[in-house]
Write a structure and sequence with these properties.
globular; Hypothetical Protein, Haloacid Dehalogenase-like Hydrolase, Chain: A, domain 2; six-stranded mixed sheet; 10 helices; Rossmann fold
Length: 262
C-alpha cells in the first residue's frame, strides 16, 4: 500500500463534546495508522494556540490550522499566511468602537484583553489550554503576525455591526450566534491541504479526511476520499464517499480499523 495521508477535523470529529475528550480508542487507532507509515494531520479552524495538550500528545505528523492559513509539519511552519495588517487594524478599531470583544491569533499564541470575559467564558468550554493566551502585548506588533481572528457579539445589534465590518474578510458565525471566526478570503482548509500535498509530494488520490461541520466543505471537495462523521451536517454527508459512525460512537477509530487493519 502506498503512503496515505489523513486529515482530521477536531471538534465533533476527534473531540467528543459530550465526553469532553478524545477517547483512547481514537488515539490508539491514529497511532496504529502512523506505525504503518501513513501520515496523520489535524485540519482545524483553530490556531495552534487553541490546540490543547491532549490533542498534541497524540503525536500528529502535522497541522493545517486557522482554516488553512498556517500549516505545520513536524513542529515547523510550512506556511503562515498573515492577514493584511492594515485591514486588521481597521477591523480592530471598528470593533473597539462598539466594545466588541476580539482575539488576535498567530501561528504560535493568541492575544486578547483580559477583560474580554465573554470570550474567556466561551473558551473555558472549548478544550483550550489557557497558558497559550496572552494578555500583555504590543497590539501593533501582533497585528503584523495575525493569521486569524475571533470575536464575540452580545446581541443582534452588535452582530450586525460586526458583520458589516468584515468586508475584507471571510467569517463563520457559530451556532450560538455570538462567536465568530474571521479569516482571509484567500485561504481555507483546502488551500492548506493542497500546500501539504505539494510540499510532501503526495498524490491527491492518496489523501483522506474526516469531518463534520461547515468549515469542512472545502476539505471534502479537495481530498481524494472524504469521510463524514455520523453526526455531520447534511451538507457534509452529501459530499462524503463514506459515512462512518458518530464521534460519540468512536467513528474515527472504527473507520480507520476498516481502512487499514482489515
Amino acid at each position: 500500500m502506498s503512503r496515505k495521508i489523513i486529515f482530521f477535523d477536531i471538534d465533533g470529529t476527534l473531540f467528543c463534546p459530550e465526553l469532553g475528550r478524545i477517547t483512547d480508542e481514537v488515539k490508539n487507532a491514529i497511532k496504529s495508522v502512523q506505525k504503518q507509515g501513513h501520515l496523520c494531520f489535524v485540519a482545524s479552524g483553530r490556531p495552534y494556540g487553541f490546540i490543547a495538550e491532549n490533542v498534541k500528545e497524540i503525536g500528529f505528523d502535522g497541522y493545517v490550522l486557522a482554516n488553512g492559513a498556517n500549516v505545520k509539519y513536524h513542529n515547523k511552519d510550512l506556511t503562515a499566511r498573515y492577514l493584511n495588517p492594515e485591514k486588521v487594524k481597521e477591523l480592530t478599531e471598528c470593533l473597539k468602537s462598539k466594545n466588541i470583544e476580539y482575539i488576535l491569533q498567530t501561528s504560535t499564541l493568541c492575544y486578547l484583553n483580559q477583560s474580554n470575559q465573554c470570550l474567556l467564558d466561551f473558551y473555558s468550554h472549548c478544550n483550550i489550554d489557557f497558558h497559550n493566551l496572552c494578555y500583555q502585548y504590543d497590539e501593533e506588533d501582533i497585528i503584523k503576525r495575525t493569521v486569524k481572528m475571533e470575536a464575540w457579539t452580545k446581541n443582534q445589534e452588535e452582530l450586525d455591526y460586526a458583520i458589516s465590518c468584515f468586508q475584507s474578510f471571510s467569517y463563520e458565525l457559530h451556532p450560538d450566534h455570538h462567536s465568530l471566526e474571521i479569516y482571509s478570503n484567500e485561504v481555507s482548509k483546502a488551500t492548506g491541504i493542497l500546500d501539504v500535498l505539494h510540499e510532501l509530494n503526495i498524490d491527491v488520490n492518496d489523501s483522506y479526511c474526516f469531518g463534520d461541520g461547515p468549515n469542512d466543505v472545502e476539505m471534502f471537495e479537495t481530498v481524494g476520499h472524504p469521510i463524514a462523521m455520523g453526526n455531520a451536517i447534511e451538507d457534509i454527508k452529501k459530499r462524503a464517499e463514506i459515512i462512518c459512525p458518530s464521534v460519540q460512537e468512536n467513528g474515527v477509530a472504527i473507520q480507520l480499523e476498516k481502512m487499514f487493519n482489515e
